[in-house]
Each structure stands twice: as structure tokens, then as C-alpha cells.
Design a protein that fits this description.
The complex is a heterodimer of chains A (362) and B (320).
Chain A lengths: L1 H27 L16 H10 L6 H10 L5 E2 L12 H7 L1 H5 E2 L23 H36 L4 H15 L2 H18 L19 H35 L2 H8 L4 H13 L1 H9 L1 H15 L4 H10 L3 H29 L7
Parallel strand pairs in A: 1-2
Chain B lengths: L18 H4 L5 H11 L1 H19 L6 H5 L25 H37 L1 H16 L2 H12 L6 E3 L2 E3 L2 H28 L3 H8 L4 H9 L4 H24 L11 H5 L11 H28 L7
Antiparallel strand pairs in B: 1-2
Classes of the chains: A mainly alpha (362), B mainly alpha (320).
Chain lengths: 362, 320
Amino acid sequence: MTRYIIRRLLQAIPLLFIISVVLFVMMNAMGDPLATMGGRKVTKPADRIRLAHQLGLDKPVCAQYIYWLIGNDWTKQVGEIPKPNAGVFTPIVQCLDPRTYIDADAAGVRKGVLRGDWGISLVNRQPVTKVIGARLPNTLLLMVTAEVIIISAALLIGIYSALHQYTAMDNFTTATTFVFYSMPVFFFALLAMYLFSVNFRKWGLPYLPTVGMFEPGAGQTVIQVAWHMVLPVATLSFGFIAGYSRYIRSAMLETLEQDYVRTAKAKGLPRPEVVYVHALKNAALPIVTLVALDLPFLLGGAIVTERIFGWPGMGRLFLDHVERSDTAVVMGILMMIAVAVIIFQIIADITYAWLDPRIRYK
Amino acid sequence: MTTTTLEQPQQGIPRLTPDELETPPLSLSQLTWRRFRRHRMAIFGAITLFLIVVYAFGGMLVFSEADANHTETGNALQAPTAQHPFGTDTIGRDILARTIYGGQISIIIGLTAMLVEVIFGVTIGALSGYFGGWLDNVLMRITEAVLVVPQIFLLLVMARYFSQSIPNIKFIGRTFSGSVLVIIFVIGITSWPYLARIVRAQFLSVKTNDFILAARATGTSTRDIIIRHILPNISAPIIVSATLSVAAAIILEAYISFLGLGVKPPTATWGNMLEGAYNYIESAWWLWFFPGILIALIVLSINFLGDGLRDALDPHSRAL
């Protein structure tokens, strides 16, 4: 088992390397970060050149990537960097020339991602770890709450409709889950906002807030945040509840037909024990993997949800900084997500093997 | 040699007449259609989908594209009236006409992105599954790499990367924003990994069959084995997956357009009609309601259709 985990982790390294190269190259070609730098207008051509030079943006992409990855504190100070002239091949010649990497007009201070330095945001000149760190808890709060609600609601609905197959209630939930499963996140969000916020206020009922984490006047109290979380969490979870409850329903129906469940019934075990211990335990097994493997989709839902509800999380941070071509922050977020997804895939495999003794990894 | 002592029947054994001889056997497509017809949800989906397509493409006869892009700032944000049944948007364009023309683009994006996805997914899955070895290893690592970053993040970065200076394109007498092409391409090349995995798994199981061995023994070329012997056998999962990915592509287009990085105006899509609509959640519900409900309906009906196809195309399914 340990060997399996180590092998999986080692396999992840080339994967992350490829992803980071591709994303970095795309980010760098995405537009001029100087054009939108933090509201400051850089208009004079001389200023632009000086600033680009200062930020290392005049280096070829390969050098920028190397500096991002392993830092540039090993570069030497030289007077003049020779500029090659090879037509279309200039970037390739530059990348192959070791002087591109070694020579700089001042020794750098960056340590590189591999040594824990994620660089500095171009937008607000703050370290990337600090920028992301400020937003990460908000997103985690949203996602963990949503995940808890998704699992408990899906279990409730799934088990109920499996035990009451083809009753009116089962047919109703089947139809509802189908509709919710196909509904785009933003449409659900807009409908929910319109009903619970706009119309409830019109009717004089207690209405749900739609923007932000707390009222500026009331401050960030637990009640305020919880109240503001209702709509975003509902938006984030409805599609998953629909999908998972369908899954649990069919898994439960299948397990209830198994021989061991019949044996348990024949032994005269009380019904709850048959359902929740014998059947559910086996039916819920695939859910564990499903939850871990669906992390990318949950993150994808979070980006839309955060935008609509003005939730100050990572999704909005990502959108804001993509729009301003802020490579350091966007790369930080994407690599963090990639690592999280890989780790969750490994966790899914391990838990599955741990729960199901028939599976052995070598 | 002993002679049999058993009594010989007088008239010979009566021949069993299989059912097939009395009623002609049903062909595969007839069986599929019978199973599909049984699926009430799928029929509902097919009809709804048909109606939406008629709405989007038949509406061309009633409204011209100029109507859809005609701005009338004095008439902005009007609630639905007899003249504008779906109301008008922030710069006074008629939302009914825009949902018609936007629907065309959304449906076209869904279909073409699906095609791009199928081309990539089937090719990569087939190569990987049939040849195996180092090629399989490389292709599957690439597949994993694409899967590790959530698709919507990848889409946003790529949409921005490719959409810097794409000129407008003229096609069948209409001008489209160049970003339409970008979105189709970007959705297609980020969606193929799932399909590639399905195709690869199918190839791995089908290629061990005896008929493949026979084909190879008779000197059939590799290309023919892949295209004429294996692919037809695995068409069912590909068709189902392709159907569902049309819905997925329509939703993804709506997401990125909604987030402001998708198809650029004046070309309307259901997605970019929603962009910024949440600022008018209180004052103008018709801005987001009509395009939103159309997206939800088309996705729902395509999903039902795909579900019905999955059951109908499954040869092991006993339902008739």
C-alpha cells in the first residue's frame, strides 16, 4: 500500500510539470499585464520598458518560467545582455542560450515555486500566498458546508426513494432531481435570488441577502455569515444533491436485492438494521469515490456561484486576476487546484481499497 | 456392430417452428426504436428539443437578424408588452428576437463543439486502446493532465488566450463574432478526455475478440480493423456520450459567456444575454428569465434524449 501511494505521488510530478508549462505559456501570451496594472496608467513608452524590465516581463517565456519554478537568485549581474537576431527563431535561440537565464542586470531575489516562493501579484504587489490565503478560507467554508449538505441530503432522498420505489413521492423526487440535474447553476441562482430575496422583501417576509459575506454595518459575525451563506450553498449543492441521490437510489435498490440482505431479513433482524447496516454500508461505498473525484466540478460550480453572489473566495479572485493577466496569482490558484485534485484522486483510491477488502493495490 | 433396438418414430420428429419464422425478425434499428419509444422521458425530450430547434430556426422567418441587433436606447429595459413579448434589454434590443438568433448560435456551438470533441476523443481513445504501449502511456498522461485542472478554469484561461484578436467572420451572408469559433474550439479541446477514456476502454475489450483476430489473419489493414471492425461495435457509447456532450457544451458556453469571457456581442447567444443580467435581478426579471429557461429546457431535453438512447442502444437491454 505504501509503495502504491509513493508510486502515485511520483507519477504526479511529471503531470504537474506538464500542466504548469502549458498553463504558464498560455498565461504569458494572454495579454499585456502592464495595460491593466492595478488601475495605474502606464502611458509613457519609456516607463513601460522600464517597468517591464523591472518585473522581468521582457525576458523570453522560458526564462520567466524557469524563474517562476526555481527562482532567479542565482543569476549574475552583468552589464549588457546580447540580443540575438535570428528572425522567427529568435525566441528559440534565446531559450537555448544559457546566458538568457544566467545574465541579469541585478541578481534576483525570487526563490521560485519549488522553494515555496509563489511570486508577487502584479495587481497589488503582495505575495501570492498572502493573496490566496486571504480568500481560501472563504471558499473552503462554502465548499465544506455545501459538501456536508450534499451528502446528507442525497443520502436522505436516495434512501427514501429506494425504500418507497414507484410511490407518488418517489416519482416526484425522480422528476425533480432530473430537472435540477439539468439546470444550469446560474439559472438556479437567479431564480432563487428572485424568489427568496426580491419577492420575499416585496411581500414583507424575512428575505435572504444576495451579495457578500456580511452586512457592512453588522460586521462579520457568525450569524451574519451563516445567513449570507444560505443562497450560495444552496446554489452550489442542488445539482450534486440531484445527481448523488439518483446514484444512491439505484445503488440501494441493487443492494436490497442481494442475497445477504435477504438472509438478514430471514434471520429476523429489525428492518432499520437491515436497511442501514447491511444494505446502506455496501451501497454507500461508491459514494466515497464519487465525492472525492467530483472535486473539480464542485470547484467549477464555486467559480460561478462566487461571481453571482459576490462571495469573496478563490473563484472570484481567479476571475479578477485572469482578466488582468496576473500570471503569478492565476498560476498559484491553478497549481493549488491541480495538486488538490490529484491528492483527492489518490485519497479516493485508498479509501475505496480500505472500505472494500476485495480491492488490493500493488 | 449392434443394431439399435429403439423404436423408430412413425412420422419423424415434428419440426419445431421458431417464433422467428412466423413473424419476421426485428432488425437492430427496429429493436432500438421500440425500446426508445417505451422511454417516455426520452420521447418528451425529443419533442421538446424539436420544438426548441423549430423556435430558434423557424423564428428566422418572422424576425430578421437586424431586428435582433436593432438598438433603441429610448426603449431600454421595457417589461414584456404586446410589441416586445419578452421585453427589451439594457440597450433596447428585443429579447424575443435575440433569443431566436442566440438560440441558433447556442445550438450550433453545442453541435460543433461536440464534433470537435468526438474527433479528438475517438482518435485519441482509439489510438491509445488499439496500439497500447508507450503511445497509450503518453496519450493517457495527456488525458490525465487535462482532467486535473477543472474544465471551467481551463476554459477561462484558454478563451482569453485565443480570443485576443480574432476578426469577425462572414458565413452564409451573416457576420459572426470571431469569438464563436474560439469558444467552439476551446470547449471541444477541453471536453474530450472523458470520451477518450470510454473509447479506450471499449477498444481494449473489443480488440480481444475472435473476429478481430480473424480480420487480422485475413490481412485486413490496421486502419480497416479500427474503422470498420471495431468502431461500429462501440458506436452506442459514443453516440450516447456525444448526445450528452451537446448539452454540456451549451451549458459551458453559457457559463463562460455569463462570466464575460465568452462570445462577444453583437452576436447573441443564450449565454451572453445573461451576462450582467444579475445586476437587474430586481428591476428586470425578463432579462435573464427567457434565455435562462431556454438553456435549462434544451439541456433537460438533451439529457432525457441521451438517457433514452443509452437504454435503447444497449443490446443487453431486455425491454421491448
